[in-house]
């Protein structure tokens, strides 16, 4: 019974996590759609164009000036480590000790360390090759996700990186945890000291757009209020230069996510991994959308990355869509004046013959020609190794659960490994309860190094030691002393309560949709439906793939029928909100899509000041409504903006935005603030 409870708890956490990632990718693909199908002069495109500007070789001299740190003085009162360059083992050891004792590295040294890291990464190949010998083992770590305590525990148990103790860190260093920047600075420091013995693979979270949603952007700006914007821009550039894979003794492949049926290591080795393309201007050294007033906020002028769909497609582009690339300037003036984002998106979907995610709209225009096809193939190679997951069935299908990459089966593993004469694939990307897991006849190994990832006691972390026999040996751990002292029953109970609380929040924010789904099974308006219908309706709304009948005792007290009115009411009885506005429909949309709203908010906040105007707030909602294919009046948006502006300064602060819709939960005779947004008269 404990094992069944543990597995159900795990399914809840993982399903909610993947649903959030899917939502993020849909928003990402929506931005990409706007960039590729709207004229550069359009206001909608100009709002988001800066997030697609990344690094170009022709601007290296300009970036060198942007990395400038000499003018930043370190005061005498600073008690943290004072670094000298080239970086030494002594220097990076001082950084480790400082972070262990909650000290912060001065911004001058952060910028200097980032500059040296960027210089080194530029000369590294896409695939790092590592050799073992009888005198040393290689240590392989999976996702850390800002869990500094896990990294420090690994170093304590296994030793610091050195020429005698090489390490491979397999991506996802940042987001979710609270010490992502500290982890990066430690890893970059050891990389500078031991460039031949410390290897960093890129993960899907080493992406500035993903960071907008999952916390890293907020973390950096909170820790470095003066120089945070510059640090973020430099990290964006560094992320694009991280290697994509590591190969040990020509036999073991290490990538963050996985592979697909079309994965080709030779192609990956040739990809220009930091590659960009300025679609609006053939001159790569110029950017049409960037004015001089944005230089300080966004770094040197740059081109825009050629971004393709993050989902895996098995059909050729020509079969998917024949949509021409079109500028709105070619429309008649009358049409141009009345044109809107919603109308353009609607027309494009209609012409394509489907109403699905924007990422499925691929271009086959003649103006791009072979270059666009090559770009898409190269980008797909990168997306597949960063985002894909293994599945037990044979084949290779789109990863609809995450929304990006693919699911690949054991037949694909055999084919790809055989084609490259490899014997084992090591990947990360998925949290495992024991910190590691074999699949595909033990030819695919998942390693995850962030313990207590979902909740205290939810999982162990692990790392791998591998010698010249290429046999993986696992070391498991729990970073929390309190968690190590819990019994199995206590640990399962703790995590189960947290998972059910998260699930109840999901049910709460989808109440309106649940009512509609329940009514389909209650044509006579009795207010009751069977447990089977309750489970079907709940899954149709939440789409989490959970065993609802198994979870029923935790969510529903009835044994035969569910009284939907009282069942939903219990999620509202102990809740109250400080804010009241007239249009509850906008609130319902907001609470269900708060993560998307916050992401768009941070995108529009180009200077990372944490504040946007009422007009920018209105544009945020216009983008969200286009994405969701819904309509909310400007009057309702204005009413909401004035309600959120607590200090009445005419602008909306990100803290005001996030705090205005916190639900106060009075259950269990205590006050608990839940990070969700929902209010609907019942």
Automatic annotation (TrEMBL):
Matching CDD domains: EFh
A single GO BP: negative regulation of MAPK cascade
Cofactor entry: Mn(2+)
PANTHER family (alphabetical): SERINE/THREONINE-PROTEIN PHOSPHATASE 5-RELATED (PTHR45668), SERINE_THREONINE-PROTEIN PHOSPHATASE WITH EF-HANDS 2 (PTHR45668:SF2)
Domain EF-hand positions: 509-544, 592-627, 632-667
Protein name: Serine/threonine-protein phosphatase with EF-hands
Pfam family name, one: Metallophos
Record key words, sorted: Calcium, Hydrolase, Manganese, Metal-binding, Repeat
Catalytic activity: O-phospho-L-threonyl-[protein] + H2O = L-threonyl-[protein] + phosphate; O-phospho-L-seryl-[protein] + H2O = L-seryl-[protein] + phosphate
Name of the top EC class for this enzyme: hydrolase
EC numbers, comma separated: 3.1.3.16
Entry superkingdom: Eukaryota
Gene Ontology MF term list: calcium ion binding; Hsp90 protein binding; iron ion binding; manganese ion binding; protein serine/threonine phosphatase activity
UniProt keyword Ubl conjugation, yes or no: no
Gene3D superfamilies, alphabetized: 3.60.21.10, EF-hand (1.10.238.10)
UniProt keyword Ligase, yes or no: no
